[in-house]
Amino acid sequence: MGADLWGMKPETLLAQLDHFTDPQTAGVVPTIQPSTTYVRGPDNALLYPDLCYGRDQNPGYRVVEGVLSQLEAQAIAPGVGRDLDPETVWAQLLASGQAAGMLLVQALKPGDQVIAGLHMYWALRNQIERFCQTWGLGLHLVDMRDLAAVEAALQHGTDGCERLLLCEVPTNPMLYMADIPALSRLCRAAGGRLAVDATAATPILLRPLTLGADLVFHSTTKALNGHADLLGGVLLGREDGSAYSERLRSLRAGLGAVPSAFDAWLLARGLRTAALRVRSSSASALALAEAMERHAAVSVVLYPHKDQVASRDMRGGHGMLMSLRLAGGAKAALVATSRFKLFLRATSLGGTESLVEYRSAIEGPTSPVPDDLLRFSVGLEHIDDLLADLSQALEGL
C-alpha cells in the first residue's frame, strides 16, 4: 500500500509497517511463516511464483524490506539530497550486519579494488582485510575525511575493474563523519560505487542513497530492532542493471546468509517504535555530550553534534552512540569502567538499555582506537539517571 501513502513521515510509515493488514485475516501484525518449502500444483508450477524454497524466500521478509526501501528512498528533509522512486530501491534482509557488509566484498572479482575507511567497525574491517588477501582484491584503508587520499586510492586497479568505496557514517567508535555527496562525486569520476554503513545513524537520521550513495547497509541487530534479541542485517541499493548488482542480489541465496522467519518478525516488531527510540536516545546522547564538555575528567567528547557535515546531512539528532576520551588516560578509563552502576558493561549499541565499553581492549593492538576511550550506547533511561551514573563514575578522575 506504499504507493498510495508515499510521503508518510517515518513515524507513520514504521508505526503501521506501511499500513499493513494481513490479507488472510485482516490482522495488523504480520504472521510468522516458518516453512522452508512451498507446494507446486499438479502442473508442477509453483502456486506462488516467488515462493519455492526457504533459503532466501520467506513472506515475512517482504514487509520489512518494503518498509525500509520506502524509508531509504525519501530525502530526509527538503534540500537535503533528493527523493528517489521507492520502486527503484531494492532491499535484502540478511543474517547479520556483518553478512551485509561482507556481501559487498564477496560480490567482487579478483583484481577488483576495495577502498575502505581506516575508521570503521573493527570486526568488518578485519574480515575484509582477510578476504581481500585470500581473494586477490586490492585493499586501501584511508581516512574518509581526507578527500584527496580517497581520490588517490580510487585510481588503483586496471581499466574495467570494479572499485568499491566502503565507508561508515558516523564511524564506530570515533564518531567521525564522511561527506557522502563528495565521496559520491569522486566515485562517479573514477567509475566506482559508494557503499555506506549507516548503522549508527539509522535511516531515521541519515539517508545515504538520497545523498548519492549507491548502496547502504545496516546491522538490524542494533537500533532498527532495538531490543537486543536478534541478529540481522539489511542491504539496500539503487537499481542500476549492472552485473555487480546482480551478483549482490543472488549471493544471499548462494551463501545462505538469511535471517530466520522469527528474526524477520522480531525486526518488524522493533521497527514500529524505531523512530521514537532513535530520536529519544539521540536527545539523551546529546545532553550527555554537552554535559561532558565541561567535565574536568574528560579531554575529548566524540559526538557529531558540532560537525558541519552532520549538521548538513542529518536530521532529528545525531545518534545514540557517544565516546569520551579521559584526561587520566587508560588507567582512568579502566577505573571509570568499573564504577558504573546503571550503564551496563556490554558490547553492542542501539538497544533500550544504555551500555558502556572500554573499546580498545575489545579491538586489540591493531585498532586505531585510543586506549583512553570509553564508548557509550545511550538507551531510553531518564537522562537525569544516566547523567548521575556517568558523573559518579568519573568523580575524582
- Cα shape: globular
CATH class of the largest domain: Alpha Beta
**Which strand order does the major sheet show?**
1-7-6-5-4-2-3
- Total domain units: 2
Could you state the order of secondary-structure elements as H and E? HHEHEHEHEHEHEEHHHEHEHEEHEH
Reported for the largest beta sheet, the result is: 7 strands, mixed
CATH superfamily of the largest domain: Type I PLP-dependent aspartate aminotransferase-like (Major domain)
CATH fold descriptor of the largest domain: Aspartate Aminotransferase, domain 2
Q: Report the mean per-residue pLDDT as an integer.
A: 95
Give the proportion of residues in helices. Answer: 25-40%
Which residues sit in consecutive blocks of at least 5 with pLDDT less than 50?
A: 1-5
Q: How many individual helices? A: 14
Estimated share of beta-strand residues: 15-25%
List the helices and strands and how they pair.
Layout lengths: L9 H6 L43 H15 L15 E6 L2 H10 L6 E5 L4 H14 L2 E5 L4 H7 L9 E6 L11 H11 L2 E5 L4 H4 L9 E5 L13 E6 L4 H13 L5 H11 L2 H19 L5 E5 L5 H6 L7 E6 L2 H11 L4 E2 L9 E4 H5 L9 E5 L5 H12 L3
Parallel strand pairs: 2-3, 2-4, 4-5, 5-6, 10-11
Antiparallel strand pairs: 1-7, 6-7, 8-9, 9-12, 11-12
Helix pairs in contact: 2-9, 3-4
